[in-house]
Amino acid sequence: MATQQTQLLARTLLTPAVALLFIWMIVPLALTIYFATLHYNLLDPGSESFVGLENFRYFLTDPAFLASLQNTLVLVGSVLAITIILGVPLALLLDQQVVGLSIVRLMVIAPFFVMPTVSALVWKNLLMHPVSGLFAWIAHLFGLPAIDWFNDAPLFAVILIISWQWLPFATLILLTALQSLDEEQKEAAEMDGASAISTFIYITLPHLARPITVVILIETIFLLTVFAEIFVTTGGGPGLQTTNIAFLIYSQALIQYDVGSASAGGLVAVVLANIVAFFLVRIVGRNLEA
Amino acid sequence: MGQITLQGVQKSFGPVHIIKGADLDIADGSFVVFVGPSGCGKTTLLRLIAGLEDVTGGAILIDGRNVVDVPPAKRGLSMVFQSYALYPHMSVRGNIAFGLKMAGIAKDEINRKVEAAAATLNLTPYLDRKPRELSGGQRQRVAIGRAIVREPKAFLFDEPLSNLDAALRVQMRLEVTRLQKQLGTTAIYVTHDQVEAMTMADKIVVLNGGKIEQYGSPLELYEKPANLFVAGFIGSPKMNFVTGELAKQQGATTIGVRPEHLKVERDGQGGWHGTVSVAEHLGSDTFLYVDAGPQGMLTARYIGELDLHPGDKVSLIPDPARIHRFDDSGKSIHA
């Protein structure tokens, strides 16, 4: 790609794809910005009028906003913590040579392939249901009262469901990283007299720093926008207890039919996601440098 | 002290016998090289001594104590791996200090020992670098530093120079040998390179197919190979083997003559006649590959330059005192 001709050719050939991607991104963004400056309610068609930044003021001062921001951060942080703290030992277990390992691996990976709506329904109706759920039955076995998950600990219940879905992802990434750990390094540590725990702390864990970073970055991107699990299980409630930013925007647009305010919320979410991404890359991104 | 004795050591992976009973006595302070072709079990034997593999049978004695049930770290040996196996996220200092740290030695003493080891290996300016910031030779030295700092009973080297380029390899070869002599620590060194074996070893163990073919000093192996395998493996270029009528005249099934023991004469009388098919002129030596008809292809080495070219007729006269004779089973016949 050294000569000018090849550069020109490369640019010409790339142009349609880049242009298409650009339009794909810029049209919705421009429309969202446009709608965010309008008074635009679906229940009141034809009354659209320019209101400037009024929608932003309304969205940001809404008490639901701070609550949902907090829920979003708690949800993302908890799921990240659970998937990594459980994912590391799981990956270590799966890295061992055991009979039937391929089947076990497949089963461990399986939850990731279940659709979010389906897994949320299964958890809601078969596992966490206070009357007919499996957890209630187990609680009864021990003579304990059943927990009404979605009323007593709604956010925790949602976190559990989402962690169950994302644990396989973390495990899988960490497992592949473990398999790339040089066997001779472990043997060198063994010769150096390191115990299993020391080997884990001084050799394995530093080796996992990079894949853990990858897991954190990728999971954060998806967890900021969790919607289906909340929609199916709690509908954001009780009250605002499980409403995150994504669900709040949905409720602005399709429960309160306020397109203008929802658009403003969408833009706020974009900014928030960028702020989170900025700090994440600052904090953990240096692990990615070779 | 670092006297290592193997008694009937065996190793099988399932039905595959890798080491078929090895007996060996390694004297304290000696430099012993395990050499053999790929898959001969030399690395496995080293790993058995290190304790990274469990023996299937037999005993390994270090200073008279059987260590087959002793974990690697407690055997008092240290190992330099082929890939160096440096800890990538630790500095050079951290790498060298790791073993001492695991042994729970006081910080000051660790620092003192690490710095002494680094000084021995000219690593002092690099102590705070990460392994990835070092060249191949420097990494190699860090790996050696990690081994010497623990003051082991013996060093185990697993093909440590195979990842270096040719010039660096020769240099490191010298450094390793000098260091071993200076420290006086027993060393076991695995290589497939017979030049390394010949130049570094006090004693060489030639392994083939999981068996020890011969154990002796480099020159012993060169001058009195125990069998066809050792004769062919030690020496470069390889020994010439001739079978048939010529061998029978000498009372052997096969006779062998090293290339350097064949006198080359242009259109000479006597000896074996042939045509040069390839001539390699190195300046210091000339290697001739001669098609000698019934005797097959023969290699001859001439010290210095010899103006011969493909197609030239030559005769090769073997030095009668340097003809090796082998019987039916490949064993040497000594007169």
From TrEMBL, chain B:
Record membrane topology: Peripheral membrane protein
Keyword ATP-binding annotated: yes
MF terms (GO), sorted A to Z: ABC-type maltose transporter activity; ATP binding; ATP hydrolysis activity
Stated name of the protein: Sorbitol ABC transporter ATP-binding protein /mannitol ABC transporter ATP-binding protein
ABC transporter domain sequence ranges: 4-234
Gene Ontology terms: cellular component: ATP-binding cassette (ABC) transporter complex, substrate-binding subunit-containing; maltose transport complex
Organism: Bradyrhizobium macuxiense
PANTHER family registered for this protein in UniProt: MALTODEXTRIN IMPORT ATP-BINDING PROTEIN MSMX, MALTOSE_MALTODEXTRIN IMPORT ATP-BINDING PROTEIN MALK
Protein purpose: Involved in beta-(1-->2)glucan export. Transmembrane domains (TMD) form a pore in the inner membrane and the ATP-binding domain (NBD) is responsible for energy generation.
The keyword Transferase belongs to this UniProt entry's keyword annotation: no
Family: Belongs to the ABC transporter superfamily.
Chief location: membrane
